Amino acid sequence: xxxxxxxxxxxxxxxxxxxxxxxxxxxxxxxxxxxxxxxxxxxxxxxxxxxxxxxxxxxxxxxxxxxxxxxxxxxxxxxx
Length: 80
Prior knowledge:
Blueprint: H1 11-27, H2 32-63
């Protein structure tokens, strides 16, 4: 498992970690401080996942653009 502030290797890894955090929080067995730390990590993972999904959506939109005469350009994500 990655360090608390480290980005996971992939979207799928982040999703798996986020699901694990949700299960731990829903169990209700964590002390308050640990629950807050887990919640904070979950928010970070959710934001990272949202960013990756937005980047994927942009790539798909570029690939499906109606203008076939436009030159192809490599995709460069804004925030990585």
